[in-house]
Write a structure and sequence with these properties.
The chain has 197 residues and is mainly α. The protein is built from 5 helices and no strands. It is elongated, with a radius of gyration of 18 Å.
């Protein structure tokens, strides 16, 4: 049981809690900066019951594995790869939010606003859905950082399935809003999430 109080656990869990805190607080602050206080709610923190359940499961997996298989958590190159993924995912996602400005919201728009423009510059030149790409990398990276094999696979599948449903739904409206401009953009630029056109 002393493994829970080891340097390994302290480092990995500290990095995880810092990653989660930074991710959600900056999501909220950016939403406030872009949309103003009157248009932002606590939903901008992006914390749902499913998300909380996934994070609790990953923490339980970590505790069980560090007690029963402490050597599994000592693969620093794996943990550091996860940390790098967390940082890269953050950079991609926050670049997407900043680049899109008012065009970015946490909820899918089903009606076009006057200020809603098709964003194809900045990071959007390379990836159609960089915020989703960034979150996909970030979420899997958090579990690789913890050397959590079960949660790594679980997060990859669950997050991918979420985007597999969300991207076509969102793009249905984007095609209505921007017509042939969006069609041409979608042909030219990848979604940013593996195996999703």
């Amino acid at each position: 049981m002393t493994e829970i109080f080891s340097y390994t656990a302290y480092r990995q869990l500290s990095q995880m809690f810092l990653a989660i805190t930074f991710f959600h607080s900056t999501e909220y602050v950016l939403a406030l900066a872009v949309h103003g206080k009157s248009n932002v709610s606590l939903k901008s923190l992006l914390i749902s019951p499913s998300y909380l359940a996934a994070m609790v499961f990953s923490l339980l997996e970590y505790i069980v594995e560090i007690v029963l298989f402490p050597g599994l958590k000592e693969h620093w190159w794996v943990s550091n790869l996860g940390l790098a993924m967390v940082i890269v995912g953050e950079i991609i996602r926050k670049s997407a939010i900043i680049t899109a400005g008012h065009a970015f919201t946490h909820l899918i728009r089903i009606n076009r606003d006057d200020h809603h423009k098709l964003i194809t510059h900045g990071i959007y030149r390379f990836v159609r859905h960089p915020a989703y790409c960034g979150f996909f990398i970030w979420s899997i990276g958090t579990q690789i950082m913890l050397c959590n094999p079960i949660s790594t696979i679980g997060f990859a599948i669950v997050v991918w399935r979420f985007f597999m449903q969300r991207i076509p739904y969102e793009e249905y409206f984007l095609r209505q809003f921007f017509c042939s401009d969006y069609e041409e953009y979608a042909r030219r630029v990848s979604s940013g999430v593996p195996f999703i056109k």
